Amino acid sequence: MTDHPKSFFLSSEIHAYLIDHVEPIDEVQRWLIDETRTRVGDLSIMQISPEQGAFMTMLTRIVGVHRAVEVGTFTGYSALAIARGLADGGRLLCCDVSEEWTAIAREGWAKAGVDASIDLRIAPAIETLRALPTDEPIDLAFIDADKVSYASYYEEILGRLRPTGVILVDNTLWSGSVIDPARDDDDTKAIRAFNDMVATDERVESVILTVGDGLTLIRKP
After folding, report:
1. Of the candidates 55, 7, 47, 53, which has an alpha carbon nearest to the alpha carbon of residue 172?
2. Which of 84, 75, 70 is nearest to 26 (CA)?
3. Does any domain span residue 2?
4. What is the pLDDT of residues 22-44, one digit of tens each?
5. What's the pLDDT tens digit per position in 153-202?
6. How far apart are the C-alpha atoms of 203 and 221, rounded to whole Å?
7. What pLDDT sits at residue 1?
8. CA 61, 62, 66 angle in degrees (round to 5)?
9. H or E stretch covering 93
């Protein structure tokens, strides 16, 4: 995970330099990286990169997040990053459908001492989001789940997002496939459509960052 870049546009040498110049990975993060690789195998590529985790922790602190939502938790690295940036008394709601993968997350959160601030819901994320009250504003959300549902997750969250709140959306460059005309699978088409929708959405401000596999930062004015 730390040896090989997730970013398709980064060389291994530049990635190593980048890792050397962000917040060092601690014992819990290293455990989550190693445990994910051991127990999940090739799918460990779905775990966010350390530099993305550092960015997400810092952004959570900058925004002053009391209430956060994550769609797609996997083995918990991104949730750990957000939880560590929460304001005092802040809460993170995690949405996922896998008991197996999130079992690793629960272990990691407990090791880090952030488990008390995280509420994990095992259910289809769209159902969890639709059940959320509309009068309890979300400060920050992270979407990193099934690509064909990105637009639906976005709409449910945006309607509950506080003014000046932010949404982070992962994989929006999709290893460069967004500009490859030969790629017409459902996931690629969904990401292209999502990117086009957000870019023209007058309700928000947005920018695609070259972090990880493309990370879209969306702000509600």
Report:
1. 7
2. 84
3. no
4. 889 999 999 999 999 999 999 99
5. 999 999 999 999 999 999 999 999 999 999 999 999 999 999 999 999 99
6. 8
7. 46
8. 50
9. strand 91-96
Do the domain assignments include residue 7?
no
For residue 126, the number of C-alpha atoms closer than 13 Å in the C-beta half-sphere is 10
The span from the CA of 158 to the CA of 165, in Å, is 9
Alpha-carbon distance of 221 to 218, in angstroms, equals 10
Residue 64's CATH number: 3.40.50.150
Residue 5 lies in a domain: no
Partners of residue 118 on adjacent β-strands: 92
Domain that holds residue 164: 12-219
Which residue's entry shows tokens 């290893």?
A: 175
pLDDT tens by residue, 57-87 = 999 999 999 999 999 999 999 999 999 999 9
Total domains present in the chain: 1
